[in-house]
Amino acid sequence: MKKYGLIVIGGGPAGIMAAGRAGERGLKVLLLEKMRSPGRKLLITGKGRCNITNNAPISEFIKHVHPNGRFLKHALSLFYNSDIINLLTKQGLEISLERGGRYFPSSSKASDVLDALFSWMKQYSVEVKLNTSVQELLLESDCIKGVRVIRDLGMEDYYADHVILASGGKSYPATGSTGEGYKIATQYGHTLIEARPSLVPLVATESFVEKHHDLRLKNVRASVWINGKKVKDEFGELIITHFGLSGPIILTLSRTVVDALRNRNKVVVSIDLKPALTDKQLDERLLRDLDENGKKQLITVFRLWLPGNLIHVFINSLNLDPSKVCHQLSSLERKNIRKLMKNLPFNIVGNRSFKEAIITAGGICVDEINSKTMESKLVKNLYFAGEVMDLDGDTGGYNLQIAFSTGWLAGESAGRLIS
Ligand SMILES: Cc1cc2nc3c(=O)[nH]c(=O)nc-3n(C[C@H](O)[C@H](O)[C@H](O)COP(=O)(O)OP(=O)(O)OC[C@H]3O[C@@H](n4cnc5c(N)ncnc54)[C@H](O)[C@@H]3O)c2cc1C
Question: Nearest C-alpha to atom 15 of ligand 1 is from which residue?
Answer without folding.
Answer: 399
